[in-house]
Amino acid sequence: MKIAIDAMGGDYAPLEIVKGIEIARDRYQNIEFQLYGTENEVKPLVNNWDRIELIATTEVIAMGDEPVKAMRRKKDSSMVRAAMAVKEGQADALFSAGNTGALLSSAIFLIGRIKGVDRPALASAMPSFDGQHDQFVFMDLGANAENKPSHLYQYGILGSFYATHVLGITAPRVRLLNNGAEEDKGDEVHKIAHQLMKNSPSFNFLGNIEARELLEGTADVVVADGFSGNAALKATEGTALMMLKQIKQAILDSGVGGKLGGALLKPAFKQVQKKLDYNEAGGAVILGVKAPVVKTHGSAKAAAVANTMGQIKTMLDNQLVPDIQNYISAHTEELQSGKQVLNAQLND
Amino acid sequence: MKIAIDAMGGDYAPLEIVKGIEIARDRYQNIEFQLYGTENEVKPLVNNWDRIELIATTEVIAMGDEPVKAMRRKKDSSMVRAAMAVKEGQADALFSAGNTGALLSSAIFLIGRIKGVDRPALASAMPSFDGQHDQFVFMDLGANAENKPSHLYQYGILGSFYATHVLGITAPRVRLLNNGAEEDKGDEVHKIAHQLMKNSPSFNFLGNIEARELLEGTADVVVADGFSGNAALKATEGTALMMLKQIKQAILDSGVGGKLGGALLKPAFKQVQKKLDYNEAGGAVILGVKAPVVKTHGSAKAAAVANTMGQIKTMLDNQLVPDIQNYISAHTEELQSGKQVLNAQLND
Fold first, then answer.
1. Which GO-annotated molecular functions does the record name (chains A, B) (predicted)?
2. Which of A72, A189, A293, B289 has the fewest CB atoms within 10 Å, i.e. the most exposed one?
3. What's the ipTM?
4. Is the pLDDT of residue A26 over 90?
5. Which numeric CATH code is attached to A119-280+322-348?
6. How many secondary structure helices (H) and strands (E) does chain B include?
7. CB contact under 8 A, B254 and A272
8. Is residue A80 within 8 Å of A71, Cβ to Cβ?
9. Closest partner residue to B272 among A224, A246, A272, by Cβ?
């Protein structure tokens, strides 16, 4: 398998990207890596060219660039060239730590949507602290600012495939992020989505979930519209970091006994932080496009990049995208009838 | 001043409600309390009837009751009778620890909206850990499942009044919860709301805020639509509790040194928990109705009930509702022109 790497995206690119790819090359036997990047910056960083190829590009999409414009105009950027390689079948998957919006645009407009998927979504594995499994799939995390009920229905399918194929969870429990447990809760979009999902033959729907329970492990796939999914994700991240910071500060403030306690507790803190660490879990995935496209945090370092290669390898090994494609093309009627129910209800 | 108390609402009603009211009666000199509740349950609980009156009611709205139906049908319930007392001028404010939806319905349909406020909202003071102030106002927390841009604009006004009058913050910094910092972020509702708020002469708008920064103290008023505000609030609460739990568990798991550390750290944990504790901060307020209406957590005990009476006293002492009423009636034109801008944009 071949992975196209945007070597220029991310806060520590290209150095940490290249280091991460070399770690991954040594760890995984059957992957070839294509580094797309500025020749004089990337070339000196590679120690061993075994299964690593450099494709020289002349432009870079910056973090602050307007995504669609950048994708359209910077045709010789590392990201666009890497995406084009996937489109043209020269690579099987795309990786970047760069501009998320531009990567979404490249995935959707260059690599293309899977036929039958209306709105690809950003999905990530998040930690489950209490449940049967260590992780759950959370999507859409912000690829879309607005979603229709039929999109949320499709996310139930896409998320279930990711949970089975990548997290190894059988019959994943799907829930809809809503502002109450009862099925009549939420705005029109969520009420109708609940009805569509409730009757789905495609996945195991267990009803609504409130954001308070996100980390409790009561769902394997949490489906959200992109706007509130994004808000819930960021509130979770912000609160987790703030709690760790506050407890550390309270330890420092509490004098000698507390400081001693703090030293004793370092391993406990590390354990919790590790569970929360995105670098351990890999990157966010754009689901619903014709190839695995994965984005790590802009601040990702080599270890995170290498772990993300493992995640991409799992997606390719387990045929995630072809299985989604086959399923959806075999169930066009189901997806269509869902839309018809929806349209009938919206016109009431 | 007179406060109408729903003595039957909440997990520990009427016992903890009555205990809390007696604490508040001893703490605050000029308040008279009207207890609405089942006579044979409430009467035996009161030790001292000074400034406490019992108004016997025969029905109770349960936590699981359908809100609007319960409010309409249970006309002799403690909650509805207390709301009617406020409506008829026999009391100045309404308190309940009961069914939130029914309290919202009672506030909006019985006590009534302030003229010019389209959609009252649920607001709460939340902890700011890093900023100039200890707390900020967060609204709408779920009174509405859907909001228009003009509602969000009005929340900027309502939230600013709450911040000045109750939290004592001058020129409060208002931000809009959105999925990015730039003004073109979000769905249509948030894009238009941003434009309306940006040009507001009524409050000090500092742009968008992402949910990641909620607790960082960069805003004194965070305005959200009810759906994503609810999601962000619950994600914050759930994550904070989960982090405390995980760190405690990690301490226990880490053996003797860790256990010792845990004992040393108890005061530090308590300090953080106290900051997060809703019982300290008082209840959630329904802003935009003609009297102070305050809801504490269903699990509130006497101390929380007493603190909430202090919060209501501050709202009454500082003329929160009359000042909002006067401001809005003097600025009808501004609110109207905001709506016109909005309509023009939505019709584009």
1. acyltransferase activity
2. A72
3. 0.91
4. yes
5. 3.40.718.10
6. 13, 11
7. no
8. yes
9. A246
